[in-house]
Design a protein that fits this description.
- The chain is mostly helical.
- The protein is built from six helices and no strands.
- Helix 3 runs antiparallel to helix 6 and helix 4 runs antiparallel to helix 5.
- The chain is globular.
Length: about 180
């Protein structure tokens, strides 16, 4: 009898996670600043896990993952300005335009944010295939943030996508600095 209870309990866990995730992404009940910080963590942690899993699988298959990564960026003040500030702001503007175009095609939020994330993943993968894995989920979260918060206030929508993006790129650039100067 205990095994039946365990199975039904396990079925409810993924459902509860999806319900909580959906509520966070599409119906947040917290201040924007807190949402942005939590969205940053939600975007980064699964992305890092996914990239590590793909790199590990490629290694086990005998494939050099560096062949699928983009060329390393040179560390400089100008590259920091572009990567950490200018690129996220410009990309968030383009994300907003893209979401409005996608909303013209479909009113389904899930479709809009999924297509947005896939398109951003593909665009980033043009510099290296592995970049798709590293950006698609993050852009899914940022697209949800833009779409959801934009309904309340367009400026909040922009911030809900831009702030996690800025934090993500700051972390990525900081990691780049650490590993290229170590």
């Amino acid at each position: 009898m205990a095994s039946q209870f365990d199975r039904s309990e396990m079925r409810s866990v993924p459902g509860a996670i999806c319900k909580s995730l959906s509520a966070f992404l599409f119906a947040p009940q917290i201040p924007l600043w807190r949402w942005c910080l939590q969205a940053f963590v939600l975007a980064v942690v699964p992305t890092v896990v996914a990239v590590l899993l793909v790199v590990g699988a490629l290694h086990l298959a005998g494939i050099d993952w560096r062949m699928m990564a983009r060329a390393p960026t040179k560390v400089s003040a100008s590259s920091a300005l572009v990567i950490v500030l200018l690129a996220p702001l410009f990309e968030t503007f383009l994300l907003a335009v893209g979401i409005h175009v996608l909303q013209w095609l479909s009113k389904r939020k899930g479709f809009v944010v999924a297509v947005s994330a896939i398109l951003w993943g593909i665009m980033h993968a043009l510099g290296g295939v592995l970049a798709f894995v590293g950006t698609a989920w993050s852009f899914f979260v940022m697209s949800c943030g833009y779409l959801t918060w934009h309904e309340r206030d367009p400026a909040k929508g922009f911030l809900a996508a831009a702030v996690p993006h800025l934090l993500n790129n700051a972390l990525a650039f900081g990691t780049l600095v650490y590993f290229t100067t170590a």
